[in-house]
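Morning run. Coffee first, then this:
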Amino acid sequence: MRVLQEGHLLQLTWMPSFFPVNCYLIEEEDGLTLIDAAMPFSAKGIIGTAEKLGKKINRIILTHAHDDHVGALDEVAKHYTDAKVYISERDAALLRGDRSLRADEPQTPIKGSVPKKITTKPDVLLREGDIIGSLQAISTPGHTPGSMSFIDQRSGAVIVGDAVQMFRGFVVAGTIVPLFPFPALATWHKEIALSSARKLLQLKPTLIAAGHGNWLKDPASGLQQAIHRAEKSLRKG
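And here it is:
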């Protein structure tokens, strides 16, 4: 496991050169917020990093409910029994293993690996604009119907889950990177993902941190290029 730190934000990465899976710890005055729970084998590294910081994990936030973002949820939640678990109201259904679509959603099948054995129940169902510690919830659907991003209001850093991909190419969810196509193949709706990327650009983030690949400081130019690439791909059909 690799750990990088930038201000209040720590990125924990497993398999960084081959198949990077990230989760994030946010330092707060009252402890730590964990964003995403990576893979089942990631629990030891998450808990160990928190212990090295000398702080407890008080909140566990899930950007969305794919397996590689919730894998260690049960074990971490069991270790930190007082920690509250947060997920969007929409993706709470996916966390239960329910892939069904709502009547007002495009009827495109939900893709990716949805958990079947997670027993932890969310304590808080998030909506756009909700505040969790220093973070504000931003609705960024597309990769899944209920995907969310979180902006640290202190620094302007945005943790985006799989709204964009940063490994072997900076692209919007749904855009294929030939050497690492998996996030794109697990994306539910490309057009909605593109709208969410435009929304992220409007936030003027100082840093973007995604589920796969290294974070990027001053990401406006890279994000704009990723948006243009997605627009071009959609025009080609």
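The chain has a mean pLDDT of 97. Good start to the day.
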